[in-house]
Write a structure and sequence with these properties.
With 610 residues, the chain is an alpha+beta fold. The chain has 5 domains: 85 residues, DNA Primase, Chain A (Alpha-Beta Complex); 140 residues, DNA primase DNAg catalytic core, N-terminal domain; 124 residues, Dna Topoisomerase Vi A Subunit, Chain: A, domain 2 (3-Layer(aba) Sandwich); 56 residues, Pheromone ER-1 (Up-down Bundle); 140 residues, DNAb Helicase, Chain A (Orthogonal Bundle), CATH 1.10.860. 52% of the residues lie in helices and 10% in strands. The longest helix has 36 residues. It is globular. About 3% of the residues have low confidence. Monomer. Interacts with DnaB. Keywords: Coiled coil, DNA replication, DNA-binding, DNA-directed RNA polymerase, Magnesium, Metal-binding, Nucleotidyltransferase, Primosome, Transcription, Transferase, Zinc, Zinc-finger. Its EC number is 2.7.7.101.
Length: 610
């Protein structure tokens, strides 16, 4: 992770920009008056899930770095250092050789993942692993392939030999975390880190493979059930949530992320259609993971194995999430048909996925669970039991950042132990005052002239994003050349995508398939950025409009775009007619064609003047 990436993972754009301008909630986003041009109504939008900002008045936009650079008048290195100090990240310039090493680690990991995949499907030695995944864990072959699961054979050198044949140096195998140094000097100097294990590739939030987890085969005597690649240039254990790259879109839509303990819990949940599930990979939730979750949702629900070790560490993770402003829920695993409580979500799903869905629906706030557990098997008429309940709950209540919620639970604790609320409040740690540094003076420029065609083009695409089922109507009415040149490329790809994949159902413009379509284009960066900006406009301007209002907006935008195009064509035809009339000799046939076209377009324009 580069310093810039680490800073963005630690800082939330709403917090950073909120130190400079007054942000007000607007649906799922935030709105403000733009600090970079004069305007009466707010057109400056900030997206917390996408960690981006854009002003639809002046067209400026970007991330936290571009905002601070423009607001403070800094170059990127200075903005990097400023935000690095705020985030607690030491900023140093990465040497070219370090970038090269990072790329080599990524290539070695990719080769290892491919080797393990092919071994799982093609090796007789992996038969037991295939049967375990498909029969015992009930993971479908398509799901196994989709999640790129593999098998590390029970060999000391199968992988390292394969990699060596591909020209990979021993030291690069070690740097990638797939091999370890031998103590003996005879033979190869490295050996396979993973042996006789089912392999799970680990990816970051962007889908880049950064490491792997190996699960010991059932019935084998392994030192550890799960083994991860050691920390490398790409992999930091406390910064990865398994499955987040696949879950993040649904998390944004559903408004909650479900955190489970095991990788298989994630896979079988997704297979069952519950796709907002990620795993902490057997660790207590870290501060980095909490900050990562906050980028996508303010609500997190936890479901940990009933036989999970390290309950105290797990609780610290839950409290850290609560303290960082997340709404924290707990999911209680249900009881099966035979009266046995499931030990993990995967076991529950294998019996009946609806039981897992029901458990998720019944998730309760963390504090409610703690209050219930604290008072269970306690006699609250006894002084010592009252003290124990107060001792266990007060530290948690003290760390609730929301004042209303804190007061609610103080009143509840007061009623529970029979102690006045004011007395309990005195036992809370003193609240830290939150100060906000004054906003920096900004160079407010005068309003820029509005580019009408670009504004109409942006509006049309944003409306299609907000109302996907209207895509056919729009595509039938508007040709790509009707739009501003800088948006026609995206529009063309939308038409192609709709024709190819979405003719019978509304297209998923924010889905992985369309994003991948854009990612395959030479100008992918610009296209994906434009997609995010116009999606933000769709959310801010149209997400709350009734269907009838959106239809009216679409009709009006289509009308104005068609009218502009006809007016442009009439001006061009008029000029061509004058040239044809003055030509010697005159081409009467060509002149009649131009006049006929002019009359037809004039008539069409008349129908649009209402």
């Amino acid at each position: 992770m580069t310093p810039a990436e680490e800073i963005k993972s630690r800082l939330d754009i709403v917090d950073v920009l909120g130190e400079y301008i007054e942000l007000k909630p607007s649906g799922a986003n935030y709105k403000a008056r733009c600090p970079f041009h004069q305007e009466k109504s707010a057109s400056f939008m900030v997206s917390k899930p996408k960690q981006m900002w854009h002003c639809f008045g002046c067209g400026e936009g970007g991330d936290i770095f571009s905002f601070v650079m423009k607001q403070e008048g800094l170059e990127f290195p200075d903005a990097l250092r400023l935000l690095g100090t705020k985030a607690g990240v030491r900023v140093t310039t990465e040497a070219p050789e370090k970038r090269t090493e990072r790329e080599r680690v990524g290539r070695v990991l990719a080769m290892a993942i491919q080797f393990w995949q092919e071994t799982l499907w093609n090796s007789d030695e992996a038969r037991e692993a295939r049967e375990y995944l498909q029969n015992t864990r009930q993971i479908l072959p398509a799901t196994i392939r989709d999640w790129r699961l593999g098998f590390a054979p029970n060999s000391w050198d199968a992988l390292v030999t394969f990699l060596a044949k591909q020209g990979v140096a021993d030291e690069d195998m070690i740097r990638a975390g797939v091999a370890a140094h031998k103590m003996a000097t005879r033979g190869r100097s490295v050996y396979d880190r993973f042996r006789n294990r089912i392999m799970f590739p680990l990816t970051n939030a962007h889908g880049q493979v950064v490491g792997a987890t190996g699960r010991a085969m059932p019935g084998t005597e392994a030192e550890a059930k799960y083994v991860n690649t050691p920390e490398t240039l790409l992999y930091k254990k406390g910064e990865v949530l398994y499955g987040l790259d696949r879950a993040k879109t649904v998390v944004r839509t559903d408004g909650v992320v479900i955190v489970v303990e095991g990788n298989v819990d994630v896979i079988t949940s997704h297979q069952a259609g519950i796709k907002n599930v990620v795993a902490a990979s057997g660790t207590a939730l870290t501060g980095e993971q909490v900050r990562l979750i906050k980028r996508y949702t303010p609500k997190v629900a936890f479901a940990f194995d009933t036989d999970s070790a390290g309950e105290a560490a797990t609780m610290r993770g839950l409290i850290a999430a609560l303290e960082n402003g997340l709404e924290v829920l707990l999911i209680g695993l249900p009881t099966g048909a035979k009266g046995k409580t499931f030990k993990d979500p995967d076991e529950c799903i294998r019996e009946n996925p609806e039981l897992w869905r029901s458990a998720i629906a019944k998730a309760e706030p963390l504090l409610d669970t703690l209050f219930r557990r604290a008072s269970e098997d306690r006699d609250l008429t006894k002084l010592e039991d009252k003290r124990e309940v107060a001792r266990s709950l007060l530290p948690v209540v003290a760390r609730v950042p929301d004042v209303i919620a804190k007061n609610h639970y103080l009143k509840r604790l007061s009623a529970l132990v029979g102690v006045p609320e004011g007395d309990l409040r005195q036992l809370l740690p003193a609240s830290k005052s939150v100060t906000q540094r004054p906003a920096a003076a900004s160079n407010v420029s005068s309003s820029r002239p509005i580019d009408v065609l670009r504004n109409l083009s942006e509006r049309l695409i944003a409306l299609v994003f907000a109302a996907p089922k209207e895509a056919k109507f729009v595509f039938d009415e508007i040709e790509p050349e009707f739009l501003a040149p800088e948006l026609s490329a995206l529009y063309k790809l939308m038409v192609v995508f709709y024709t190819r994949e979405s003719a019978e159902q509304p297209p998923a413009w924010q889905g992985d398939a369309f994003r991948q379509t854009l990612a395959n284009e030479p100008n992918a960066g610009v296209l994906l950025q434009t997609l995010d900006v116009l999606s933000l406009r769709a959310e801010s301007d149209f997400s709350l409009l009734p269907e009838a209002d959106i239809q009216r907006e679409l009709n009006e935008t289509v009308r104005r775009l068609r009218k502009r195009k006809l007016q442009e064509r009439l001006q061009r035809l008029e000029q061509e007619i004058r040239i044809a009339e003055s030509a010697t000799p005159r081409d009467e046939t060509r002149l009649r064609e131009l006049v006929t076209q002019f009359q037809n377009d004039s008539a069409a324009l008349t129908t649009l003047d209402f």
